[in-house]
Specification:
The protein has one domain. It starts with a helix and ends with a helix. It is globular. By secondary structure, it is an all-alpha fold. It is built from seven helices and no strands.
Length: 174
């Protein structure tokens, strides 16, 4: 957060806003392509073991922490992370896990992560309370309905829809 504040002071708000939008777009495109690539690789090698699960002892805890650090930085700059970067990282690290379990863990983690980022943005005066209130009015029922439907949508369909949504959104931002 302090890096973002220093960049605003030295380069200007307009430059930082432009940079954030492009970084966000590039990040979303990368995440969307990663999901598709992972699915392609998984189908090509479907005769092999389905992949690591979270309970596998072979996974070094430092890998998850490094991903958390990188994603934390990107979340602070772009607000993308809990919904796209982390889920993609988890999909790539733990291809044997069910998507519903990864989504639930990701959403809970995102709540904590975004809370910390929000405090940083609040500190710099970057929060528009009217905007946040309006978003919450629509988002809370949306999250509730989405969590109900996630358990009913086939895994492959959910992954494909997520990848397409992220990719198209990223293209629109760049």
């Amino acid at each position: 957060m302090y890096l973002l504040g220093a960049l605003k002071k030295s380069a200007g708000v307009a430059y930082v806003d432009h940079l954030i939008v492009h970084l966000l777009g590039a990040t979303l495109i990368t995440v969307g392509l990663s999901i598709v690539l992972k699915e392609y690789i998984h189908r090509r090698h479907s005769q092999q073991k389905t992949g690591r699960n979270i309970t596998d002892e072979a996974l070094a805890s430092w890998q998850v922490s490094v991903i958390g650090f990188i994603v934390g930085l990107l979340v602070a700059f772009t607000s993308v992370g809990s919904g796209s970067l982390i889920i993609t990282s988890l999909l790539l690290l733990f291809p044997g896990e069910r998507l519903k379990g990864l989504i639930g863990s990701d959403v809970f983690h995102g709540m904590l992560l975004v809370g910390v980022a929000a405090i940083g943005h609040w500190h710099f005066g970057d929060v528009n309370i009217r905007l946040v209130t309006g978003l919450l009015v629509g988002s809370l029922p949306g999250v509730w309905l989405g969590s109900l439907f996630t358990g009913r949508i086939p895994e492959r369909t959910l992954r494909s829809a997520l990848a397409m949504l992220l990719f198209v959104t990223g293209l629109r931002l760049i």
